[in-house]
Target: BTB domain-containing protein
Amino acid sequence: MPGKYPGGRARTSEVSLCLHRLHAGNVMEMGSCREADRESVASSLRVRVEDTVFTVDRLLLTRGCEYFRALFRSGMRECRQEEVHLKGLRAHGFLIMLAVLRGERPALSADQIIDAAECAAFLQAETLARHLADIVSSDNCLLLLYVAAVYGLLELYHSAALFVRDMYEDLKDAAQGLPPELLQYVESLSPRSFVAMGTHSPSMELLQDTFRTLCYLDEGEKDWKYLTDLPIDASTTMAGVAVLSNKLYIVGGVRGVSKQVVESSFCYDASTNQWTTFAGPSQLRYNFTLVGHEGRLYAIGGEYERAIMSSVEAYDVVAGSWSFVHHAPRPVAHAASATAMSRIFMCFWLPMETTDIYEYVPGQDAWELVTTLIRPQSYGHCMVAHRDCLYVMRNGPYADFLRCLMDCYNITTGQWTAIPGHYINSKGALFTAMVRGDSAFTVNRMLTLEYSIGGGRWKPRREMKGLDVFTKAAEI
Model:
């Protein structure tokens, strides 16, 4: 089961929806680091690229490029020079790299992508390579796949190939222009599949609890198919649900009307069709937000003994341990979240009119207020990301939950846009939206609807069967 999941999680009292992939040489030689060289690392350096000279902080280059880390720590004569001449690079590519190292996230044209990929490979600039992976879209995925193969950027190559595979039906004709070995690699991957589950609370093993069923969407047959069953002790009622590295995680949840917290957590690996258990957060919690991001699960806020909390814990998947990180800006329960451009965003609302969007920055262990949306008698219930846009679904005028309105926030430009029209919200369907490629999917018991995202709005594209767990249980 190759690949990784870039999205987040969506949950309502009706159904949880998530995404899986089912089944299927220019660096100088390094020497020993010398104590005398450390002072030189803290100074600026002139870097000549083509006919342009850049004056750059050495610490910035050290943090972002393996090339310069090796140079400055090598003890070689070059590490003490005030100017370095880089041959074989384009100045524009180096300029893009500097912008990314400073924290900018520029949009790039086709020519700029080629220059940036060359620079990322030559200087082994992992931050720049990661930014290229973040901007993969239907407009540039084939180009990014090709240049990643040419320059040996393996992670970018894999990310672009996964994106092409997910949108293969739309890109199939254009993809025929790829070299045969690239096309073969794309076709060897498995596209992401939607996985859904009902709201389940643990019960006796002998009971045939239909809500324990997990299903996946067979888009060829436009129907939901049986995948597996939840473990007996697992709960999806007020639990945190997320996908990380293509594994499904269920954390917390409650059993019974007394809301007794389930202390164990559960992980499902579709490649082996096996469930494993692991410890839950140190602070018992339910009705919280679970976000998977770069090897960690973040349990944000939630409730315990009917008190809303602001505490946040991170689970390191490799280390197998939980640790507290910086508290959320204020107590929050069941908050909408999304990841865009490898960044974590969350909605904090103050009913009935204010929706604050905060970003959690793992590297700084800090929360930053990004923007505030004020809409009379309305607040955000669900948020999904597409490219560098956050789409916030909210109830209609006068608390009309049958009609959803949407607003779009672009994290690059910092601008809000009201999406025209309204969207029918049947039993929370739009509050379980998930994005894959240029499509958004919503699901309820009657209908699974695919929207195409583009042109400043969501347009209905395809209808499939809804997820009725009772009917499915009878068919299995």
In short: The longest strand covers residues 400-410. DSSP finds eleven helices and 33 strands in the chain. Residues 391 and 408 are 5 Å apart (CA to CA).
